[in-house]
Amino acid sequence: MTRWLDDEEQATWRAFLGATRALMDTLDRELQHEAGMPHAYYEILVRLSEAPEHQMRMSELADACGSSRSRLSHAVARLEESGWVRRQDCPTDRRGQVAVLTDEGYRRLEEAAPGHVEGVRRHLFDALSPAQVGELRRISDAILREIKEGR
Known about the structure:
- Helix 2 (39-50) packs across helix 5.
- The model has no long low-confidence stretch (mean pLDDT 95).
- The relative contact order is 0.11.
- The chain has helices at residues 7-35, 39-50, 58-65, 69-82, 103-123, 130-150; strands spanning 55-57, 85-90, 93-101.
- It has a three-stranded antiparallel sheet.
- The chain has six helices and three strands, in the order H-H-E-H-H-E-E-H-H.
- By secondary structure, it is mainly α.
- The two termini are 21 Å apart.
């Protein structure tokens, strides 16, 4: 039996969907304009910058970015063309590859980060009280937990 959303749940769902789409679209548009890269590429550079030796297995990077392996492979190919990432064979698995953040990629990330962080602050955190920030964190953690446990 279908558990239909009541009016309050429907309004909440629509507000959540609209807010998350608008936030991500705005951040993506700003990154494109200010740094010349889409948010998906920025996310890859961030993940690599935080990884040991600035490298990750392609499969782990795809999981970390919430991306399919084919989509990530295409994005990494574009980042390779820009000289921001390079691929190399995985030393422990002949079939695997590792994405490595280049010095140029790290430099581009450092240039893009201040504008992106300002956008996140302006469009998300400035709109919320400190209590709402804490609540948003708890809500987001609960949603992620439910999704991961439901897999």
